[in-house]
Amino acid sequence: MSDTALFGPDNLPYGLFTTPDRPGHRRVGVRFGDDVLDAGAAAAEFGSAHTDLLQQPTLNALMAAGRSTWQDVRAQLRAWLTDDAHRERAARHLHPLSGVTLHLPFDVADYVDFYASEHHATNVGRIFRPDGDALTPNWKHLPIGYHGRAGTVVVSGTPVVRPQGQRKPPGETAPLFGPSRRLDIEAEVGFVVGTPSPHGSRVGLEDFREHVFGVTLLNDWSARDIQAWEYVPLGPFLGKSFATSVSPWITPLDALDAARVAPPPRDVPPLPYLDDTVDGAENWGLDLRLTVRLNGHTISEPPFSAMYWTAAQQLAHMTVNGASLRTGDLFASGTVSGDAPEQRGCLLELTWGGKTPLQLPDGERAFLEDGDEVTLAAWAPGPDGARIGLGEVTGRVHPAV
Amino acid sequence: MSDTALFGPDNLPYGLFTTPDRPGHRRVGVRFGDDVLDAGAAAAEFGSAHTDLLQQPTLNALMAAGRSTWQDVRAQLRAWLTDDAHRERAARHLHPLSGVTLHLPFDVADYVDFYASEHHATNVGRIFRPDGDALTPNWKHLPIGYHGRAGTVVVSGTPVVRPQGQRKPPGETAPLFGPSRRLDIEAEVGFVVGTPSPHGSRVGLEDFREHVFGVTLLNDWSARDIQAWEYVPLGPFLGKSFATSVSPWITPLDALDAARVAPPPRDVPPLPYLDDTVDGAENWGLDLRLTVRLNGHTISEPPFSAMYWTAAQQLAHMTVNGASLRTGDLFASGTVSGDAPEQRGCLLELTWGGKTPLQLPDGERAFLEDGDEVTLAAWAPGPDGARIGLGEVTGRVHPAV
Questions:
Q1: Which end of chain B is more exposed for a tag (fewer CB within 10 A), N or C?
Q2: Do A323 and B142 touch (CB under 8 A)?
Q3: Nearest chain A Cα to B158, which residue?
Q4: Residue (of B208, B170, B176) closest to B192 by Cα position
Q5: SS3 B120
Q6: Which run of H or of E encompasses A54?
Q7: Is residue B81 located within the same domain as residue B156?
């Protein structure tokens, strides 16, 4: 399927771009086919009331404006790009995608990473804790999550330097120091908060749409050897904090309406604040089809629809203790893994802890080698058989320094 | 000891304040005795080259300016406040502390919480994991830490609403939902990063002074029942993220020179990047004397000098994987607990998991009750027998909503 079809008038994702003639001038862009619309310039052209929000060096102002503004802006963009009366004037503000540079589209406030795939959590539990139960006793009662490092969230294309750190191989009596030998990816979907919430209040399941601006693809790079040694008892830290890559396009939540599906049945009834099976509750399972490519070869196709916990449940959980939301908060799903082996979203699972390396045309891979390039891509069903592209997030591994 | 003596010319901590006549106008303030100097106004008065940095609604610009600027500004402030030639003009810009409102002094970037007291970690290990070793095998090899929620860092005086969440009391087969019944404090010291570091580089032990702007007191409010149920395997999340309180004054690192002491001997030799025993290495143990008061009664006096890992080691560890630093990064020591029972920095330890409640004049306390007020205070030795006050961080518990 061509990019033109993946980025049609039902998608219209937001990003930030610069052109070579003005490299310091970051502008809000909207992807349309193989072009990028300079949204601020178009808004000025058409005299939009939202021109100020779109003439910013980050998406945060638009994100903070709230859902009715998001809907209004989206309707205007669609009209400018598709109505016969407007198209010609809008076209003056289109730039070929191939000629622009894309940037991290928003200022990240807090970053939270969840652990919401039952298949992933079960596999990791079996690999990391072979003598215990695969799932911890809390897993089906709450969406487990932890805070990650917001300052090292980077845009697609940013090189990923192999981290150094402590690891303790089996049989060693003390940890060794050096470059990670078990560098991995995690294929995830990130949710970007627009509308903030006050400290001391909760965001219920029913308010998900009011707060979440859009969706990004996310690669939660992970150094498994560093992580395995450090993570008991307070969780992952340096094994994750060296880099988290996101796609340059934020797909508006409204563009994913046709992709909403019922989440898988839960065998443990959720507590009321997490119960999305009550009458009138919206389904926030999402039929996003992910692809993981390593040096151009597809190594996995994780289905997001298989996630046990939805993003709406994650948001409700994250705020049930009164924690506030800020514009720019980013929360990620955790590794997306399906039931089948070829649907697993990280090398740890795909190679079962490195024991069964992948056989690729250019060699065997247990974990990532220097020079390897990983790309995550995804699409979702749109209206009337259209497809909504979520773009790509890519990164190449550079040697440790 | 009077506040005047704790905030003399060797201290000069920074904060942000407003006056009742201009409640929206946040200004950089410097505490001097029982007054606050309007630093931006004084800088303009004296024609300082740093006036712009001091006429800001946050400390971040000054923090980002780097150590030589910090030293320069500090020397100017001291001269304005103490030289006979300047004092009178400076006095025009002093406001009585009792008449101003203090605000969160800086924009928090990432927040990291460590776990650096051997006494605390040993006690918690015994209480939470009575059947295992008190310290995990990694504890003496690396300063264990995790990312917390930056968006819920609040200034002293902000009410702390009792969080709701899931807890699973012994004997229950499923978790219950409701207000935390084991609300606790953690007496900590926070370190505030000024100078950023590039992504992909490390900050060595020897560069600590170049990056850390100053020190704050920090109360890492903790809901022990929520934490105990959620924290395996990815660490604390909602049990901590509802509120973290910091003192309104950031004491410059240079004000603590006389408080630097050798850290306790380590029984496991640290890896080279953490080894502060080599020739020429600076001691970054700090002789800070903390006091914890509950409803006005002193319940503990934790000695910061007993911390196993120093802040310099924490900073070196946090960046050894190439993670960047941003201006406004905040990292906290973890609960400060000494060897003696009356030096323990949280109720979990002081009451041994609630089994031996504190006997206070106004009743028994295992964990915090609604209406309780907790205050942390601290001082450090200064030059020539002076004392450097670190101010106070206080918070009152409000009922769950």
A1: N
A2: no
A3: A199
A4: B208
A5: helix
A6: helix A51-54
A7: no
Question: How close, in Å, is residue A176 to chain B by CA atoms?
Answer: 8
Instruction: Please report, for residues A113, A136, A289, A292, A366, the alpha-carbon distance to residue A350 in angstroms, rounded to integers and kept in the order given.
Output: 21, 21, 18, 11, 9
Say if residue B178 is in the same domain as residue B315.
yes
The CA distance from A371 to A164, in Å, is 16
φ, ψ of residue B232 in degrees (nearest 5): -100, 125
Minimum CA–CA partner of A141 in chain B? B175
d(CA B300, CA B120): 13
Domain boundaries, position A63 = 3-103
**B320/A141 touch (CB, cutoff 8 Å), yes or no:** no
d(CA A287, CA A282): 14
Name the token pair of B240.
């901590």
Q: What is the pLDDT of residue B262?
A: 96
Neighbours of B99 (CB within 10 A): 11
Cα torsion B96, B99, B101, B102 to 10°: value is 20
- Same domain? A149 vs A68: no
Tell me which of B103, B121, B150 is where a domain ends. B103
Final residue before a domain boundary, out of A81, A103, A125? A103
Rounded Cα–Cα distance for residues B212 and B195 (Å): 7
Answer yes or no: do A86 and A118 share one domain. no
Contact B230 A142 (CB under 8 A): yes
Helix (H) or strand (E) holding A76: helix A67-82
Contact B401/A320 with Cβ under 8 angstroms?
Answer: no
Output the CA torsion B276→B277→B283→B284 (10° steps): 30
Which single residue is written with the structure tokens 């953490």? B274
Three-class secondary structure of residue A251 per DSSP: strand
| Cβ–Cβ gap A138/B232 under 8 Å | yes
Strand partners, B289: B303, B379
Spatial separation of the C-alpha atoms in residues B251 and B390, rounded to whole Å = 6
Is B120 a known active-site residue? yes
DSSP-based three-state secondary structure for B37: strand
ipTM over 0.85: yes
- pLDDT tens per residue, chain B (401 residues)? 466 789 999 999 999 999 999 999 999 999 999 999 999 999 999 999 999 999 999 999 999 999 999 999 999 999 999 999 999 999 999 999 999 999 999 999 999 999 999 999 999 999 988 888 999 999 999 999 999 999 999 999 999 999 999 999 999 999 999 999 999 999 999 999 999 999 999 999 999 999 999 999 999 999 999 999 999 999 999 999 999 999 999 999 999 999 999 999 999 999 999 999 988 889 999 999 999 999 999 999 999 999 999 999 999 999 999 999 999 999 999 999 999 999 999 999 999 999 999 999 989 999 999 999 999 999 999 999 999 999 999 999 999 99
Q: What is the DSSP letter of A303?
A: B
Give contacts of A229 with chain B, Cβ < 8 Å. 138, 142
* Residue whose C-alpha is closest to residue B196's, from B16, B370, B33, B63: B63
Q: Least CB-CB distance to B234: which of A199, A236, A268?
A: A236
Identify whether residues A341 and A273 lie together within a single domain: yes
The CATH number for A23's domain is: 2.30.30.230
Is B129 annotated as belonging to a binding site? yes
Ramachandran class of A6: left when φ > 0, alpha when ψ lies in -120 to 50, beta otherwise: alpha
Nearest Cα residue to B401 out of A200, A315, A206:
A200
User: Both A91 and A52 in a single domain?
Assistant: yes
Note whether B208 and B132 are same-domain residues.
yes
Residues of chain A with pLDDT under 70: 1-3
Take residue A2 and report the two structure tokens written for it: 């061509």
For residue A192, the number of C-alpha atoms closer than 13 Å in the C-beta half-sphere is 32
Question: Domain with A147 in it: what CATH number?
Answer: 3.90.850.10
Strands B164-167 and A183-184: unpaired
The verdict on A155 and A235 lying in the same domain is: yes
Domains in chain A: how many in total? 2
Single-letter residue type at A351: T
